[in-house]
Predict the structure of Crp/Fnr family transcriptional regulator.
Amino acid sequence: MARLKAKDRTALISLGQDRSFAAREVLLSQGELSTHVLLIVDGWVKVSATAANGYETLLALRGAGDIVGEGEALWGRPRSATVTALGSVSAVVVEGARFRAFLERSPEAALEMLRFSTDQTREADQRRLRFASATARERFAELLLDLARSHGRRTEEGIEVTVPLTSQELAGTIGGSRETVARLMKELRERGVITRRRRALVVVRPDVLRRMAALTDSAEDTRNP
């Protein structure tokens, strides 16, 4: 919603109803037939898809100011992903018919939505391309950099990331296992690249993560941070 003009944001929000969701509550389910959209007001949600064998892949994180579920509202297709609250979430629910009518009345808002959707698709395509040829170690380093850049807060210690992702969710994002994530987290803590707090991860040395994301395992092992 941040891309919309203030008057368009206000108009869109006025069309919906306030809803609150508890941590780990499912907001939208993959495969369901529904057309409403969610305007995230506060909190974090994860967007994930599950394969036939049950393996879950984390596709994206969305937070305050983001719109979720707009594709199905426009095209009426089954939900392509599941949206789950990572903590307490406040949102505005707008029925699909109202959302479509809003876009028809507001061509500027419709254009911004199209740009946003195009940017998301381009970003996802670029990430898939990079990940296809990268090792799990490189993918994990890039994931931490992405989280720090998109969802981090600068502190004296480093860049604090408070998005509450589990080891399984991190593993699903990089196409690895929980054991791989645990091993990499241990390595990065021992090297002073990251630190862990009760509800946060702090990126202390993003420069090391950048090198890890750009180099092969063997090349990175020859360098010290």
